[in-house]
Amino acid sequence: MRKGLAVAAGLLILSGINWTIVQREHLLREGRVVLLELAPVDPRSLMQGDYMALRYQLVAAAFGELDASTPADGYVLVTPDAHEVAQFRRRVVRDEPIRPAADELTLRYRLRNGAVQFATNAFFFQEGTGARYESARYGEFRIGADGEMLLTGLRDADFQRLGVPDAPP
Question: How far is residue 48's CA from residue 161's CA, in Å, rounded to a whole number?
């Protein structure tokens, strides 16, 4: 009986993990691309390997100084400009109904350890390729209808994707 319960629990856990993977793959395929402008930040941390810490200009525009009244979870409504760069419109508290205008996108945020997070605050890259990302100006995200976001890359000031390896000769 215990063996049967363990197998059933394992299958349930694997099903949940696979469902999450399917949802993320769908978001990568079908999600709308939007760019968040990066705020200046130390480009690398040697303690955690090769990665770039990310901060977003949108946080300053949407939240200013954080205080105790800032909800831990909620949504920010943005309007993409001609280059798909998100421009802040307004915040919506999680319990309020979200009614974006036709030209607005909903981005989910989370307040963790006193900082606002959109999807992730780090971009990891292959060891020794950090120079490819030094000119990063925008984080490229795929946005789902529910406001969930996945970081898919970085772009420079000319909106070109960074990190694409040079073509072999």
Answer: 24
Q: Are residues 72 and 125 in the same domain?
A: yes
How many residues belong to the chain?
169
78 or 164, greater pLDDT: 78
Number of domains in the chain: 2
Structure tokens at 121: 């605050």
Contact 13, 34 (CB under 8 A): no
CB 152 within 8 A of CB 32: no
Q: What's the whole-number mean pLDDT along residues 67-88?
A: 88
**Within a domain: residue 110?**
yes
Q: Are residues 9 and 91 in the same domain?
A: no
Radius of gyration of the CA atoms of the chain, in A? 19
CB neighbour list of residue 97: distance below 8 Å, 6 or more residues apart: none
pLDDT tier, 61 (very low <50, low <70, confident <90, very high otherwise): confident
Cα–Cα distance, 16 to 58 (Å, whole number) = 32
- Model-wide pTM > 0.85: no
- Same domain, yes or no: 82 and 6: no
> Amino acid identity of 147?
G
